[in-house]
Structures are given as C-alpha cells and as structure tokens.
Design brief:
Elements: E1 9-10, E2 21-25, E3 32-36, E4 41-45, E5 55-58, E6 64-69, E7 75-80, E8 84-89, E9 95-101, E10 106-111, E11 117-122, E12 126-131, E13 137-142, E14 148-153, E15 159-164, E16 169-173, E17 179-183, E18 201-202, E19 208-212, E20 218-222, E21 228-232, E22 240-245, E23 251-256, E24 260-265, E25 270-276, E26 281-286, E27 292-297, E28 301-306, H1 331-344, H2 346-351, H3 359-373, H4 389-400, H5 404-414, E29 436-440, E30 444-450, E31 455-461, E32 473-475, E33 481-484, E34 488-492, E35 501-508, E36 518-523, E37 527-532, E38 536-541, E39 545-550, E40 555-560, E41 565-571, E42 574-580, E43 592-598, E44 603-609, E45 618-623, E46 629-633, E47 637-642, E48 648-654, E49 663-670, E50 674-681, E51 695-699, H6 712-737, H7 743-769, H8 773-780, H9 786-798, H10 802-825, H11 836-849, H12 851-854, H13 856-859, H14 886-910, H15 915-918, H16 945-952, H17 971-979
Antiparallel strand pairs: 1-28, 2-3, 3-4, 4-5, 6-7, 7-8, 8-9, 10-11, 11-12, 12-13, 14-15, 15-16, 16-17, 18-19, 19-20, 20-21, 22-23, 23-24, 24-25, 26-27, 27-28, 29-30, 30-31, 31-32, 33-34, 34-35, 35-36, 37-38, 38-39, 39-40, 41-42, 42-43, 43-44, 45-46, 46-47, 47-48, 49-50, 50-51
Length: 992
C-alpha cells in the first residue's frame, strides 16, 4: 500500500512533553480550530491559507483541554485546566460568557444536535447538562468513578454516552436523566496520563456507538440494547487513543499509541489506508465538505490529510444519513402504534414478559408486536384538551369485540366531533402531588402545587439578572390559570364554593403604592381565559363576556363575543382572542375565529377565521417577540399572521419535516427566525416542572415543494427575508406616525436588505447554471443595489450567456435612466440655489414618510423597475466628521469577506474554466452604500449659493459613490458628500 506523506505545521508550542491537543472543523470547512492543554490559547486557522497567522483567543488562565463547536458553527465552547467552561461567538471569536465552573479540570465537552444543550465533564466525575439559551444547569449526571474523558450526544437526541479514564461506558437517557446501561471495563485504563484520553463516538445515523477496545481495536455497541455488534481489529499494536466517523458513517479514522492512523471501511471491517507519524495523533476531524482529515499530535503540530479515501471508493461526504430518517422508512407506523398501546394500558401488559430487562429492548418488542396486532390508528384529540378521549377509545375497542352491527352504530356516535375546550397557552394539566405549569412563556414561568388546604405558587424568570425577584405566594383560591409579562401576573380560578364564584387576581411586580394587587369576584360567571398587556388586564368568561381592566383595577370595558372562547393572548396594546364560530364540521374540523383588539385606541384592526390543519385543534396561541400573532395546531403546523393581502396567515413551520414520530413539540414562543419549544417523548405531550425543561430552537421555514433548481434553502431564505422586511416596514410606519425614533429599525432593515441581495445573487447564479434564464431576469429586477446588478452582468458574461448579460444591462440602463430623469425633475431649478441644509432636512423626512411606496419593488416580483435601497443607515452627529473614513473601512472589510465566499460558490457552479472570469464579481455584491442622507450640523451654513447649484446639477453615474475628500470638517467637504448621494425617485420638494 502506498504511504502518503502528511505535512504538519506548528500550531501550539507548549512544553517539551506530550499534551492533549484538540482540533475541529466548522460546518462549511472555512476554519480549523485548535487548542492544547499546555497553552491557555485557542487558535482559529484558515485552512486555505495555512501560512497566515491564526486568530488567537486568550481568555483561559491555563491549558485548554476541550473544544466543541455548535452544529451550526455559530458558538464555540472551550474547557480548561482552570476549571472553567467559556462560550465564544464564532468565527469572530468574541468572548460571550463563562457558562459554568467545576472544582477540577475539564476534560470533555459536547453539544447536542440542536445546539441548545452543552454537556461538560472532567475530573469531577459529574456531568453537567447546561442550557445554552439561559446558561442554567438543567441536570447533573453522576455515576462514574473516575475522571470523565469522553462525551457524545446521540444524533437522535435520546441518549448521552460517556466514558471515563478507567474504561467504564454509561448510556444516559436525556429525558429522565437516569442510567440505562453501564458497561464496566470495556475500554483501556489510561491511568494518570492526561495526554491520553478515552473517547467514544456515535455513528452519524445514531445506531452504533464506537468505543476503544481492550485488544487494540474498536468495539461497536448497539444503540438500544448496548450489545456488542462487531469489532474493527487491524494492525494497531497499541491501544486506540482517538477515533472519528466520516460524515456519512461509511469510514472511520483511528489513531493509536503506536503513532499510526488507520482508515477503515466500516461495512467491510478492514483498513483501506494508513499513515505513520513522528508523534502520537491525539485528535482528528473529518472535513465536512470534501475528502480530507485534519489531525493534530501531542506536540501541537497539525495538518490536513488530503484524499484520505481512495478515489475509486465512495466519497466520505456522499449519502450522509439523516438522524431523522426513521420518519421515512416505515417506522412511523410502529411509533404511532406504541403511542396507541401506551394510551390504552397495553404497555404494562407487554412488559410482563421482559424478565427484568431494561426499557429500550421493551420498546423494540412493542414495535414487533404492533405489526402482529395490526391495530388501526385513529386520530383522536389530545387528553389535555379533551379529557374524555381515552375513555372513548376504550369504549370503541370494547365494541370491536362485540357484535359488528352494534359496533358500527356505537362507533358513529362515539366519534362525533366535539368543540375544543378553553385552554391557557403555556399551561399544563393538574397532576396530583406534582408541581405543574400555570404559565410558561419566553419571559418565565408560573408553577403551582396543591396541598391539602392551599396551593404554593412560584414565579421564576429565565433571565434572573433582569427579571424581578418575586417571593413565593400562598394560594387559598385554587388558581388554575395565569398569565405573565414584564409588569405583573394575573391569576384566575373556576367557580367554587357555595356562591359558585370565580376569582380574578392581578399582582404587579413593582408599584409606588403599598397595596397594589387587586381582586375581582364573578358570581355565576366563570373565568375561561386571561391575558395581560402593557397597561391592561383582560379576561373572557363563560357568558362570552370580554372584560377589560386597567392594571390598577379599574373596570374599563365589557364586550360581548359571538361564541365560546378557546384562548387569549396579549402583547403591549394588542389583545388577540380565539372563539368558536359554530359546531365542528363532520370532517372533524374546528370552526374558530380570531379577533385582534387595540386596547389603547379602542379599535379592532383584524377579524377572521383561524385556519387549522384538517382534523387538528389549536394547541398554542400567542405573539412572537416582535409582536407577530402566531398559532400552532396539533398537526404540528405553525402559522404567523401578516397584514399582507388584507390580513393572512402564513405557514412558517411544519413539524412533520423536523420531528421524529416518537416526539411531540410543546411550543413556548418564537422570534423572527426561530421556534422555541420543549421536545416531549410519546406519550407525553407536555413537560414536567422537574427536571427543568430544556428549550429547543428550530429554524422557521416555509413548507416549500421541491424546486427544479434544487435550491429550496435559498428560496426559503428569500421568502423569509421578504417577510421580515414587510414586518419591519410596518413597524417603522407605526413608529414614524407616532413621532418615535426609527434608527434601530432602519439599521435592522438595511442589514436584512443587504442579506436579501446576497441571497438573490446566489439564486441568479443557480438559475444561470440551471438554464432558468427567465427566472434570472425576474430576480435581477429585485436587486436593490446597483453594484449587485453589475455583478450579475459579469456573472452572466463569465458563464458565457451574452443574451442574458445584455438583458441584465438593459435593466441597469433603464434603472439609471429613470434615476437621471427623477433627479433632474425632483427639485425646480429656481429652488436649486437654496441651502443644502434644507435639502437634507427634506431627504431625512422622506426616509420615514416614503417607505411604503419604496418597499413595493422588493415585496412584489412583478415590478420591472429597480429602486434605490429601501433603508439607509442614519449617521449620528458624533460620526459626521469621520463619515468617509472609519465606518467605510469597516464595512468594506466585511463586504470583502462575504464577497470572497460568494465568488468561491460561483466558481464551483461555473466550473474551472470560468474561474478567472467569475472572480471579477468580487466587491460588487455586498458593499454597503454610504449613507446618502448626511445631516449637517446646525451651526454650519453654505457660503456660496452658486457652488450648491453646480453640485446639485451633477448626475452621478454611481448612486453609491463615496466621497474621497480628505478634510471632512469643512463646510465645503460636507457639501461634497451631499452631492454624491443617490437621487431619490420619490423625493418631493417641500423646502420652505
């Protein structure tokens, strides 16, 4: 076998003795991260330019013993001998926080697949599971008798595997925190040598766990039973010290104390290549894109082994398995049957034959049994909203064993659809003897536990540094629903006592008055739902009354609703209510209606039907962090309300593409791009208070069909950016109408618009390569930056599409021609001698008043005209003098980095022969234009009217041309900046 030579270069000097070093790729293989236990620094290398000095992070006080990158490569975690675990933003390396500390050195770190949980362990023998969202310790796992040296989350999110220095492996169940299996003495005992650490690794499909064996081999264990499956034994003469699966799980790299690295074909169980090194390789990482392996030795030298797998064999990145592949291979039916059996009580019956075996094998037998039984699965309502569902199902099953004719009659009446009962978002059912949630949202939670005489209520905030500290409360009313916001909390209970009274209580968190909480009693009227806003409290009762109170307790409004309430939610001035319109349809569809009220204005902006997936019911209802009304149904579809097209609901997430059949998503909230939920395993549909729920972040995405371009991700990004721009535009209009400062929203919109241009440019490249030229024309019309259009022209030229390039050029000329006409007619010639100061004031005012018209070309793809950028960043008074110096440099650096990546993507699409031409597109795509509306200081005036007239008459060829004058402090120079701003086609002459 031909021996390849891998050149290593020094990454960490450290000491002369061996030390454990770490190496890791990011998701796109743009960076390599290395660390050494003999150095307190972390290095971020550019693999394309290895001779360039790395970016160095120096925040630890002692050697760095462990590294972990989040799955999306936006967060870097590091553990050290100094007992701390730190988080950084990646790839910038900006220090984020000290997320936890131990009493002894850290040895292992690992993120779960969603990046919401970080496992950390070391010489303390305990494993901490850390919630990366709020930094809280979700659970501490204890069971090892030696230093924990390796951690690995199961890709399917069910288990955590750990290994210690004495060779013990433990399977942990994440949901309960209990030990499933303990395999003692299956791995080598590494002793006190900290440069040799036992490690373990799950296969990418999550079905196999690889562990170093006692015979210089790798032993594979089954996921569910922990049974030994097979071994990889070859020419290693000493124990294995590290292993790494290829991205597709078909190959494995192993390093040994004998200084050899072997590459294995796992299916054939034989090595296919090897490499001998001068020093022991202590860490390896497969390149996520391509056929390469990064290695680092105990002396801190690293390198990249190219072409690891022979070209005649399948690439290590081909056919990468999905950890959620079970949804598509028939096991969905089995998992549904498991849920059916567990709900009917059959789980314990089948478990009687287990003979003391543990739970995972039982689950496997249940799946086999369900095939034999062949029980038909019926859609029934969740027992949270429909308490009688289980009894109905039992009655139906009894009928199956009786006479068929009677069974048919009974089943018709048994499954008649029922109207959904009222529920409070973020609440869980009462559980005797256990604490349950009255409210759980993005701000915090309210929990209660019932005793013999009273209930004990606790209010906790996720961010304890900003939320107020609220003392526990003794509840003598038996509250069953609550709502929580930044100002206070509201509680209510159903009718109780001899007088059949329902109680409403509001408790503010801070007040200048001593007795600020208040109560309301309702005789013969039961509170069904409550909601909180900025200055109001709302409740909906059994009489279909909507009662609105001020936060001081003043009864302000009483409205009659046209149906029984389902739920309610509040956000600032807005109150949203869902009610029944009529009985359910025979097809099992709930007939629901929503209303949005503006409490401060006393208006009802929107009213309409609430869409649900056929056969489903509403499980969550509320507002996003930005104030967008949202709903989530039992079929796992999230919808967000938008004012577009007169008010419509957009499907922004479908759990059928994300979750496994054995999981349920309990929604907590959402923001502009993420859904926050708690993952519950069947048959549970809601979390327990203890252990503390762990939030999972899921990306919002439209349920798009498969595109002929194969660019669903880019098309989804394009649609999401349009939605975000529309939402921000509406907020800017509202704030501008109220006379509020919109600078922060302008900046946010500007960034989204720049990202949208980059997305459109990549779609144009895909259209050109996929011969979808008409679509490319439509996309070019949506580009908002002129240089992006020029970049598209050069891209078409590089791809040898002259007709398309000519059409792109015609669009650019039409745009420039329109701008020239508008710039010459926007101001009368008799007024061109007025001061620049007045002109700038008009321009600044128009940035707020003209946005509604300007935004149309971005939202609508049918417009043939190209507009200037919708949003321009405003310049603070302290930044005016250095406008053309400091900020421009920073923006150009960011643009150059982003452009270089886009050119590389274009190179790949166009092929090697066009590489040189495509590179000309550099610096044309994402350069951010200089701020066209520069505000002059109040004490400066223009001396010569003639100069202003001359400057204003110039028509710039580039609307984003930046002033190159050196003396920005002079009045003439500020005027120079003004003359080069782009003409605004919507500019109106309002100079007094």
């Amino acid at each position: 076998m031909k021996i390849k030579s891998v050149k290593l270069r020094e990454a960490h000097k450290g000491s002369s003795k061996a030390s454990f070093c770490s190496i890791s790729w990011d998701l796109q293989a743009h960076h390599l991260v290395t660390a050494s236990s003999s150095e307190p620094s972390i290095s971020i290398h550019d693999p394309l330019l290895p001779s360039n000095p790395p970016r160095v992070l120096r925040h630890h006080r002692d050697g760095v013993t462990a590294l972990a990158l989040s799955p999306n490569s936006t967060c870097l975690a590091s553990g050290s001998i100094d007992h701390s675990v730190k988080l950084y933003k990646f790839p910038s390396g900006e220090f984020e926080t000290n997320i936890t500390r131990f009493t002894l050195p850290i040895r292992a770190l690992a993120f779960n697949k969603s990046g919401t949980m970080l496992a950390a362990a070391g010489d303390d023998e305990g494993i901490k599971l850390i919630n990366t969202i709020d930094g809280s310790i979700a659970r501490v796992l204890k069971g090892h008798r030696g230093p924990v040296t390796g951690l690995a989350f199961d890709p399917n999110g069910e288990y955590l595997a750990s290994i210690d220095s004495i060779g013990t492996v433990i399977y942990w169940e994440l949901l309960s925190g209990r030990t499933l299996y303990t395999l003692k003495g299956v791995a080598p005992d590494t002793g006190s040598d900290t440069s040799v650490l036992n490690v373990l690794s799950w296969s990418p499909d999550g079905e196999t766990l690889a562990v170093p064996g006692l015979k210089n081999d790798i032993v594979m264990y089954d996921r569910d039973t922990a049974e030994k499956l097979f071994t990889l034994r070859g020419d290693h003469t000493q124990p294995i010290c590290f292993m790494s699966w290829s991205p597709n799980g078909k190959y494995m790299a192993t390093s040994s104390l004998d200084k050899q690295v072997l590459i294995w074909d796992v299916n054939r169980k034989q090595d296919i290549d090897r490499q001998k090194f001068d020093d022991r390789i202590c860490c390896m990482a497969w390149k996520p894109i391509g056929n390469a392996l990064a290695v680092i030795d105990v002396m801190g030298k690293y390198g990249v082994w190219e072409s690891v797998v022979p070209s005649s064999m399948k690439s290590p990145t081909e056919d990468i398995p999905s950890s959620r592949s079970k949804n598509n291979n028939g096991l969905l039916f089995f998992d549904e049957e498991d849920q059916e059996l567990s709900m009917s009580g059959s789980l314990s019956d089948l478990g009687e034959d287990s003979h003391g075996e543990s739970e995972p094998p039982i689950r496997k037998r249940l799946r086999k049994q369900s095939v034999i039984d062949d029980v038909q699965h019926e859609d029934v309502y969740d027992e949270l909203s429909f308490p009688k569902t289980e009894s109905r199902k039992k009655v139906h099953r009894v009928n199956e064993n009786s006479d068929k004719e009677k069974d048919g009659l009974r089943s018709i009446t048994t499954f008649r659809p029922k109207m959904q009962e009222a529920f409070q978002p973020g609440s869980t059912p009462l559980q005797p003897g256990k604490r349950h949630f009255l409210c759980y949202n993005m701000l915090g939670s309210i929990t209660t536990i019932k005793t013999d005489e009273y209930s004990h209520i606790e209010i906790d905030f996720h961010d304890t540094s900003t939320g107020p500290r609220v003392p526990p409360m003794t509840d003598h009313y038996g509250f069953t629903m609550a709502s929580l916001n930044e100002n206070g909390s509201v509680f209510a209970n159903p009718c109780k006592g001899e007088k059949n009274m329902s109680t409403l209580m509001y408790r503010p968190f801070s007040s200048w008055a001593n007795n600020s909480e208040w109560y309301m009693r309702f005789e013969g009227e039961e509170v069904r739902a409550v909601a909180l806003g900025a200055t109001w409290v709302a409740t909906v009762t059994s009489l279909n009354f909507l009662r609105i109170f001020t936060d001081g307790g003043l009864q302000k409004h009483i409205l009659s609703l046209n149906g029984p309430v389902v739920t309610a939610a509040g956000f600032k001035d807005e109150l949203a209510i869902v009610t029944h319109v009529s009985d359910c349809l025979p097809s099992n569809e709930q007939m629901l209606e929503f209303r949005i009220f503006n409490i401060s204005k006393g208006t009802q902006p929107f009213k309409g039907r609430l869409p649900l997936t056929p056969g489903s019911y509403l499980t969550w209802f509320g507002f996003s962090e930005e104030g967008q009304l949202s709903s989530y149904d039992s079929k796992g579809l999230l919808r967000v309300f938008t004012s577009q097209y007169g008010g419509n609901w957009l499907p922004l997430f479908s759990s059928s593409k994300e979750r496994k059949s054995s999981e349920n998503y309990w929604v907590v909230g959402l923001n502009a791009t993420k859904l926050f939920c708690v993952v519950c395993k069947n048959p549970d549909s809601f979390p327990q208070v203890l252990p503390k729920p762990v939030l999972t972040l899921l990306n919002l995405s439209f349920p798009l069909p498969s595109s002929d371009l194969g660019e669903e991700a880019l098309e989804n990004e394009f649609m999401l950016n349009n939605l975000l721009l529309s939402q921000i535009q509406k907020r800017i209009e509202v704030m501008a109408g109220e006379g509020l400062d919109t600078t922060s929203l302008d900046d946010e919109a500007f960034d989204i618009e720049a990202a949208q241009d980059r997305c459109i440019f990549r779609l144009i490249a895909s259209c050109c390569n996929g011969d979808k030229l008409v679509r490319a024309i439509e996309l070019v019309k949506l580009l908002s930056v002129e240089k992006s259009v020029r970049g598209a022209i050069q891209l078409a030229t590089a791809l040898k599409l002259p007709i398309l390039a000519e059409r792109f050029n015609n669009i650019l000329e039409e745009r420039l021609g329109n701008k020239t006409v508008v710039s010459n007619t926007s101001l009368p010639s008799s007024k061109r001698g007025l001061s620049v100061k007045a002109d700038l004031a008009v321009s600044k005012a128009l940035t707020a008043t003209g946005r509604s018209e300007i935004s149309e070309p971005i939202v609508s793809s049918s417009s043939a005209k190209l507009s200037a950028p919708l949003f321009t960043k405003k310049v603070k008074s302290s930044d005016r003098v250095e406008f053309g110096k400091q900020k421009t440099d920073g923006d150009n650096q960011t643009a150059n980095l982003e452009d270089s990546r886009e050119v590389k993507d274009a190179d790949k699409n166009a092929g090697p022969r066009h590489a040189n031409s495509v590179k000309e597109v550099k610096n044309l795509q994402t350069q951010r234009p200089s701020k066209p509306f520069v505000k002059l200081p109040n004490n400066q005036e223009v001396k010569k009217v003639g100069e202003v007239t001359e400057l204003q008459s110039q028509s710039p060829s580039n609307p984003f041309f930046k002033s190159s004058n050196e003396e920005a402090k002079k009045v003439g120079e500020v005027t120079g900046v003004q003359c080069h701003r782009p003409s605004n086609p919507f500019l109106k002459s309002t100079v007094k």
